[in-house]
Specification:
Layout (H helix, E strand, L loop, with lengths): L9 E5 L3 H9 L9 E6 L4 H9 L5 E6 L12 H10 L4 E3 L7 H16 L6 E6 L4 H14 L3 E4 L3 E3 L7 E3 L2 H14 L4 E4 L8 H6 L4 E4 L9 H18 L7 H14 L6 H24 L6 H14 L3 H20 L6 E6 L10 E3 H4 L3 H11 L7 E7 L3 E3 L4 E3 L7 H21 L4 E5 L2 H6 L11 E3 L4 H12 L2
Parallel strand pairs: 1-2, 1-10, 2-3, 3-4, 4-5, 5-6, 6-9, 9-10, 11-13, 11-16, 16-17
Antiparallel strand pairs: 7-8, 12-15, 13-14
Length: about 475
């Protein structure tokens, strides 16, 4: 396992409840051709610990920490803590560290390694370097090495994001780079972990400094709650009304809804209070939609589509809404995290032929044209290579990915629509490519789709193949490229 860190850092998904594991299983974490990690902690329920222990696959690595930074803190001494690590099936267990305190962390590290060496454990013990400067981190790291630690993590690089109890971000991006660079320069072959610091956008940094991995808490929040999704639809409807210079809704009604929606996300609200707020929002939405529906004939198809989206969300049951949430998280993990392990990018256009489904569906399931039928067949037969990332150019949605949740639509990619999308696609595609390290790109698009990419500057030095000829010839070239 140690040799793996030289190839690619491992993202460790932070999990602390059964639902987190269900989502990751839905996202196919244990079916990937590359190594991924789970990060749990000792203050979790017995049910979760059993599920964590049994969540095994050849590509999964598991780390457990003490839970010292959770609400209840670390409630165990080392003997009890290490028993919990064993019971959870940890590959690695982390010592109890003290945030930003080098001396106290070293004292804890002494107790930890003494307890660890007193009997035989199946997990590897991870020491943690803490500090307030590069020099302090350096000294703490050296002290851990002297104590006999072979596996060391860098901690204390995080702080809570403003106005949030859940999101965390790197306290000082430059400090992270400076600490990693200093440790790596002194200890070029050491196993090194960055606690709480992984993000898809930092994958290149982790790779540069040959970091074994880092844990990532933000993955689970990559979805839009129904009330926020509806809020965006209302804004789009208001924008269309403004363009036509028609005031359909009293602005105070929309302002009231916006205020309640913001109140809903207050971290001080109980579950019961949030339920009541959602019911209030639903009642307001019913009034707003009734007014808009009465006046829908004054607007075009786009206006009706936004109304339809709101009604679809409200007509979805709990199971359907949960699937939508799972699919949104899956799309994020597939397109942003897993893509860091893929070396080739396939860019294809959306399909005129679509699955006549009602409601929200992953883009790959919606499109039903020849290119998609060929790709789906390869996937069914387990013939689609794991090193290929698919990106779709949609006439309606712009740049999307196969797992992105969309609705049925009938918008064609005309030359006019291609011109409208140029700036948006340039920004989104160039940003995406800058974060990734694709070694080859294949583009299979028709003329108007190609025009929509006219402004995109692809990375220099990366081979780019553009499919030519008739539709069947383009598809044959695409399949040949996919097969290597």
């Amino acid at each position: 396992m140690q040799a793996h860190y030289l190839d690619n850092p491992i993202p460790f998904f932070v999990v602390d409840r059964p639902m987190s594991l269900k989502i990751l299983e839905y996202c196919g974490i244990n079916n990937q051709a590359f190594t991924l990690g789970l990060m749990g902690h000792a203050n979790t329920s017995k049910e979760f610990q059993d599920l964590f222990r049994n969540f095994n696959h050849k590509n999964i690595v598991k780390i457990v920490d003490s839970g010292v930074f959770t609400k209840n803190g670390c409630m165990n001494g080392y003997s009890s803590l290490f028993s919990t690590y064993e019971n959870m099936g940890a590959d690695y267990g982390i010592i109890i560290d003290i945030l930003k305190d080098k001396e106290k962390t070293i004292e804890s590290a002494k107790k930890a390694i003494s307890a660890y060496n007193s009997q035989k454990y199946s997990f590897n013990l991870i020491g943690v370097a803490q500090g307030n400067s590069v020099k302090e981190y350096q000294k703490c790291y050296a002290a851990l090495k002297d104590l006999g630690y072979k596996y060391i993590a860098i901690g204390g690089l995080l702080k809570k994001a403003e106005n949030s109890a859940r999101y965390v971000k790197v306290h000082d991006e430059q400090l992270l780079k400076n600490v990693a660079a200093k440790i790596r320069s002194q200890y070029p072959k050491d196993w090194l972990f960055l606690l709480g610091s992984y993000h898809p956008q930092r994958h290149k940094i982790f790779k540069k400094y040959q970091i074994f991995g880092g844990d990532y808490k933000g993955w689970i929040f990559q979805y839009t709650p129904p009330e926020d999704w509806i809020k965006k639809e209302h804004l789009s409807l208001s924008s269309l009304e403004a363009e036509s210079m028609r005031e359909i809704i009293d602005s105070t009604l929309l302002e009231e809804r916006a205020a309640i929606n913001e109140n809903l996300h207050s971290k001080n609200k109980s579950l019961l209070e949030k339920k009541e707020l959602r019911l209030t929002i639903r009642a307001l939405d019913k009034r707003i939609i009734e007014l808009r529906q009465k006046n829908a004939s004054k607007f075009g198809e786009e206006y009706l589509n936004h109304i339809h989206t709101i009604k679809t969300i409200y007509h979805s049951n709990d199971e359907q809404l949960r699937k939508i949430r799972f699919d949104q998280v899956k799309n994020y993990i597939e397109s942003q995290v897993y893509s860091n392990f893929r070396e080739r990018l396939l860019i294809i256009g959306c399909s005129e032929k679509k699955n006549p489904s009602i409601g929200f569906i992953p883009a790959f399931d919606l499109y039903h044209g020849p290119n998609y039928l060929s790709l789906k067949k390869m996937i069914r037969n387990n013939q689609f290579p794991p090193d290929v990332q698919i990106m779709i150019v949609s006439a309606k949605y712009g740049m999307i990915f196969p797992d992105q949740i969309i609705e049925y639509y009938d918008q064609k990619m005309t030359l006019g629509r291609a011109d409208d999308l140029k700036k948006e696609l340039r920004k989104r595609i160039e940003t995406y490519l800058e974060e990734k390290e694709f070694k080859g790109i294949f583009i299979n698009l028709g003329k108007p789709y190609m025009q929509s990419l006219e402004l995109v500057k692809f990375p220099t030095g990366v081979p780019i193949i553009k499919a030519k000829g008739k539709i069947g010839e383009k598809r044959a070239d695409m399949l040949n490229w996919i097969n290597g």
